[in-house]
Design brief:
Elements lengths: L25 E2 L1 H15 L13 E2 L7 E4 L9 E2 L16 H8 L3 H10 L1 H8 L1 H6 L2 E4 H10 L3 E3 L9 E2 L4 E2 L6 H4 L9 E3 L4 E4 L2 H7 L6 E3 L4 H8 L8 E5 L3 E5 L4
Parallel strand pairs: 2-11, 6-9
Antiparallel strand pairs: 1-4, 3-5, 7-8, 10-11, 12-13
Length: about 260
């Protein structure tokens, strides 16, 4: 409710991923949507829930799961799930002054690791036709946001992973930032970002049909699963930790740095 009290909950278990090769972890993007729709529909069956009383909805998802979509918003390949372990070998060095500046600062190994781990670099190198057809490169949160409200948008608090995101200013990196050279993704392929707590869009008629969420209801920007979990349990300062047990166990703290 408006006081933050939980009134009802519906849970649908997910098959985390499938693997066609050692170290790979993928999932059908539409599988996530179908499970979301299933959870919503089961929620409306509860006596304590009336969709007509809803004021807004918010979305939180797992982090670092990426999806390539074409000009029509259709997935071009399976989602690469955050557990995926593939890396890109034989990376070409950066061009221009960034190469020498990073090397002089002793960051060359860190940069190479960053570039090797980036999913967009692997896809661009090993599946160039898919990358060429990629209209938008989205996190799972961005993909589900698109299906819910028809906008290529996402929360600044969901940008976790190998992306050209400026954590200090909560926006995509500036035009001449080194990350645009280090990563294959272009600014035009990324969604518009919204601060947590702001309205991203409204639930479309199609999404309302599939989920049962009322048409036109505001979709509010939230954050990634861990970000919401840490804040929700009250770990708001660096001297308070949050222990989480999920697919992996994690220990998290909040820091202004």
């Amino acid at each position: 409710d408006l006081n933050g009290q939980l009134l009802a909950k519906s849970q649908v278990e997910l098959e985390p991923y499938y693997s066609t090769q050692p170290g790979w972890a993928e999932q059908d993007p539409d599988y996530f949507w179908r499970q979301l729709c299933s959870a919503c529909r089961s929620l409306w069956q509860m006596d304590t829930v009336d969709p007509a009383t809803l004021r807004a909805v918010a979305l939180t998802t797992q982090r670092s799961t990426v999806i390539n979509v074409d000009i029509n918003g259709n997935p071009l390949r399976p989602a690469m799930v955050w557990l995926d372990q593939r890396q890109l070998d034989n990376i070409d060095p950066l061009k221009g002054p960034w190469r020498y500046l990073i090397k002089a600062a002793g960051g060359e190994d860190t940069l190479n690791y960053y570039r090797a781990q980036a999913e967009c670099n692997w896809i661009a190198h090993h599946q160039p036709n898919i990358w060429k057809a990629t209209h938008k490169y989205l996190l799972l949160s961005g993909y589900l946001t698109y299906l819910l409200c028809g906008n290529y948008a996402d929360s600044t608090a969901s940008q976790v992973g190998y992306l050209p995101f400026d954590f200090k200013h909560h926006r995509w990196c500036a035009k001449h930032d080194w990350r645009w050279q280090a990563l294959a993704v272009k600014r035009s392929q990324l969604p518009r970002l919204y601060a947590p707590g702001t309205v991203i869009g409204q639930i479309t008629a199609e999404a309302a049909r599939d989920t049962g969420i009322p048409h036109g209801l505001p979709l509010i920007s939230a954050g990634s699963d861990k970000a919401c979990e840490v804040i929700g349990c009250g770990a708001l300062t660096p001297d308070t930790g949050s222990i989480s047990y999920g697919t992996t166990a994690t220990f998290n703290v909040t820091s202004p740095k």
